[in-house]
Amino acid sequence: MQTQDKINRFFQNETIAEVLRWAAFLSFAVFTAFLIANKGIAIAAVLLALPIVVAYVILFFRYPKLGIYTSLVISFVLPMINRWGDYYGIPLPPLGLGVDILLLLTYVIVILKYWRRTDFSALSNDVMLLLTIWMAYIVLQIANPLAYSFAAWFYSMRGIALYQLLIIGLGFWMFNSRKDFYNWLHLFLGFSALAIVWAIKQKFIGVSPAEQKWLDDGEHITHVLFGKLRIFSYYFDAGTFGAAMGHVCIVSAILFLGPYSKARKIFYFLMALFGFYAMMLSGTRGALAVPGLGGIAFLVMSKNVRLLVAGSLIMLAGFVFLKYTTILQSNYEVNRLRTALDSDDPSLNTRKRNRKRLTEYLRDKPFGGGVGTTGSWGKRFSPGTWLADFEPDGLYTRIRAETGLIGRQFYVWMWLYILFKAIWKIWKMPTGTEEHNVSMALMAGYAGILLANYGNAVMTQHPISLVTFLSISTVYTIHRWNNPTKPYKDREW
């Protein structure tokens, strides 16, 4: 006992305690220096990141919604990280899989944390049923005899089936309050504002060294046309950026009409204005479909005859300006958009011919050629095959090529059902309310994205995918804003 008291007094001595702390610090510093000298600078990054990772895991377990917010952030910065990593020759892990892992971990953590009180009733609805049926169909595609690779199926199915099931499910389950909506909306608009600034920088100052390397490695073929750079900001490509900015434009424009403060209205107005400008900078013709159809959907949902007439006249004037005049023809961005309405456009005719070829190829293949057999995954895992060399362009063409006419029909009608049911819900809402305005904004953006999918696979690209799926779950759960549900029951079983 006396020995134990002496030990306690020894460690309680302030001078000795200070010496021990410094000794521990110096030992750690020497150990770190030894590792850096022998293993390289990468070990220093790991050691520096370790406390951050530990803190994040603790916060993640305490606030599971952090997984969804982090996934949204990753979806924005992923292309930029990949480009800089490639420029400096830093081998990066497949960060895209991080989104999958975070979304799955969010489910796991909530179930583990509330394992005796977990409540899945919020997931019992027709939308989740349709998404589950589609996921089951995609899983059955593993047995497609024409498929070449399980790895190709795994990488490809994430964008066309897994993400939507996980994100919309989490939205129903956990994101059903006013605070949840504005949290992810502010992330979405905040990163979009940064993207617009970055796009303007690319336009008037130039691209970064990492972006120039990305262009030099082959992307200049599609991103430098007639000596003009198609602006892509920090997104995967100009097509994704253009559609995303069209989405920002229509959502912000409708939110501007909502019952908000003057400062917030100014912010939404500027986002709509500069979002449209950034969309034009991208040179993505199909992106015009997003604010175009989105605007039509908004006019229908508004149930305001005067607004419907005024909006229709404005849209008609815009159509006539692009289709039947040559005003501002010397402006590259206007000229590029004008070709989107040209029925004799060579690119459009090439797509039509390709789709006819696909129809012939799939004549005796009702279930398609297998998930992951087209596009980049096809070139990587089954090079030299007919589908690997086929350029699907639009998302719906890709779905038809990989899952057949049966899959394409179910896929398209599933999304249309979700849209029309949401519009029916909006029609029954009281007009002039915050919920009505938010629902119209999100569904107008969703409608535009659905049309843009015809020319480009935008709904399978980050960050458009996450934002679109969160929009769906928000509109379908907006009636709970004043009485949000929880992913667990208030009382134990």
TrEMBL record:
<dbReference type="InterPro" id="IPR051533">
    <property type="entry name" value="WaaL-like"/>
</dbReference>
<feature type="transmembrane region" description="Helical">
    <location>
        <begin position="20"/>
        <end position="37"/>
    </location>
</feature>
<keyword id="KW-1133">Transmembrane helix</keyword>
<feature type="transmembrane region" description="Helical">
    <location>
        <begin position="127"/>
        <end position="147"/>
    </location>
</feature>
<feature type="transmembrane region" description="Helical">
    <location>
        <begin position="304"/>
        <end position="322"/>
    </location>
</feature>
<dbReference type="Pfam" id="PF04932">
    <property type="entry name" value="Wzy_C"/>
</dbReference>
<feature type="transmembrane region" description="Helical">
    <location>
        <begin position="43"/>
        <end position="61"/>
    </location>
</feature>
<feature type="transmembrane region" description="Helical">
    <location>
        <begin position="234"/>
        <end position="257"/>
    </location>
</feature>
<feature type="transmembrane region" description="Helical">
    <location>
        <begin position="66"/>
        <end position="85"/>
    </location>
</feature>
<keyword id="KW-0812">Transmembrane</keyword>
<feature type="domain" description="O-antigen ligase-related">
    <location>
        <begin position="271"/>
        <end position="379"/>
    </location>
</feature>
<feature type="transmembrane region" description="Helical">
    <location>
        <begin position="153"/>
        <end position="174"/>
    </location>
</feature>
<feature type="transmembrane region" description="Helical">
    <location>
        <begin position="97"/>
        <end position="115"/>
    </location>
</feature>
<protein>
    <recommendedName>
        <fullName>O-antigen ligase-related domain-containing protein</fullName>
    </recommendedName>
</protein>
<feature type="transmembrane region" description="Helical">
    <location>
        <begin position="181"/>
        <end position="200"/>
    </location>
</feature>
<feature type="transmembrane region" description="Helical">
    <location>
        <begin position="410"/>
        <end position="427"/>
    </location>
</feature>
<keyword id="KW-0472">Membrane</keyword>
<feature type="transmembrane region" description="Helical">
    <location>
        <begin position="439"/>
        <end position="457"/>
    </location>
</feature>
<dbReference type="InterPro" id="IPR007016">
    <property type="entry name" value="O-antigen_ligase-rel_domated"/>
</dbReference>
<feature type="transmembrane region" description="Helical">
    <location>
        <begin position="266"/>
        <end position="284"/>
    </location>
</feature>
